[in-house]
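[recover] target loaded
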């Protein structure tokens, strides 16, 4: 099981205070690294979607939403990603039927749901160049989880914020932040997955903030996507709910809000599932996230269902993104 976020990240208690001097050192290293790196510009605009904390905040649905926004406006997007959890070396093109163990769960999921050309690689500028070499028709690149990759030049930054992942607002290792909270004041827009604390609202006071909800109503059989069922079919039923994501409790709460009795099974983010993880020894249905389902196709029981969701983002976010891109196009 992948590591879960330590509980002390949620408060400024004794353990966090003991580690705080290391957080100060980490902050100095982050600042020095950012000042030292020089961004590499590409021939097409780059939109970075990321966050400032360790853990999931809902970036994958935002990338999917952004692809739809760009296509509707006539752009031809491609995606680059690190490929966390994958084992391919260098840069690699991700096929829609690729194995998550090779390319990472999130890149494979994005390749499937967006049908976008997608390249994974630790070196983000090189991954972007490889994407353009293979797909020269791409005229905009979305960098998934790329806020801290300062060698990659960017035209626009979108921070996806889930307050629970911000924890005690301290930097690693005393808290979950990869960059200080003030970094949010520098982005072009913030997408808030849930309510923000007063301190986070203060940090984003001069940045447009748009609310996001994750919505879904239809389930797909993990082993046979052609089989579907409405979520409402499970109202009043007891199910095993499986989630290996940054915030498993959010998935469980969403099912409970639909009137489903949940037996929760929380795994670490990017967990490498095996058949034994789904062997619960009873006949209850199994419901899981789309990110987990891509890793379970080969061994999922017949009554195992994926719950795909889409991001619903506040009015004005799409317009701001497109305006920013058009401004860059006219001044280039």
């Amino acid at each position: 099981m992948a590591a879960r976020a330590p509980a002390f990240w949620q408060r400024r208690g004794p353990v966090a205070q003991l580690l705080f001097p290391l957080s100060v050192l980490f902050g100095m290293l982050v600042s020095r690294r950012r000042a030292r790196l020089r961004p590499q510009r590409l021939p097409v605009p780059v939109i970075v979607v990321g966050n400032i904390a360790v853990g999931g905040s809902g970036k994958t649905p935002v990338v999917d939403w952004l692809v739809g926004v760009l296509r509707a406006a006539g752009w031809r997007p491609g995606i680059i990603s690190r490929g966390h959890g994958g084992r391919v070396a260098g840069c690699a093109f991700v096929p829609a039927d690729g194995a998550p163990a090779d390319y990472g769960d999130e890149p494979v999921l994005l390749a499937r749901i967006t049908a976008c050309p997608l390249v994974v690689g630790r070196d983000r500028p090189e991954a972007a160049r490889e994407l353009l070499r293979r797909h020269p028709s791409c005229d905009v690149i979305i960098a998934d989880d790329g806020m801290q990759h300062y060698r990659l030049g960017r035209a626009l930054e979108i921070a996806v914020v889930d307050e629970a992942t911000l924890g005690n607002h301290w930097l690693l290792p005393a808290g979950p932040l990869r960059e200080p909270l003030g970094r949010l004041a520098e982005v072009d827009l913030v997408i808030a997955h849930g309510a923000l604390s007063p301190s986070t609202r203060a940090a984003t006071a001069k940045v447009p903030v748009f609310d996001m909800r994750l919505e879904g109503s239809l389930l797909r059989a993990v082993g046979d996507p052609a089989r579907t069922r409405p979520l409402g079919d499970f109202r009043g039923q007891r199910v095993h709910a499986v989630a290996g994501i940054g915030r498993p409790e959010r998935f469980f709460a969403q099912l409970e809000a639909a009137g489903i009795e949940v037996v929760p099974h929380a795994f670490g983010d990017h967990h490498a599932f095996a058949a034994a993880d789904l062997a619960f020894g009873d006949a209850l249905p199994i419901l899981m996230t789309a990110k987990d389902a891509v890793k379970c196709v080969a061994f999922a029981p017949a009554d195992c269902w994926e719950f795909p969701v889409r991001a619903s983002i506040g009015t004005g976010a799409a317009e701001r993104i497109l305006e920013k891109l058009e401004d860059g196009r006219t001044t280039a």
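[recover] notes: The domain at 37-213+313-331 is CATH 3.40.50.300 (Rossmann fold).
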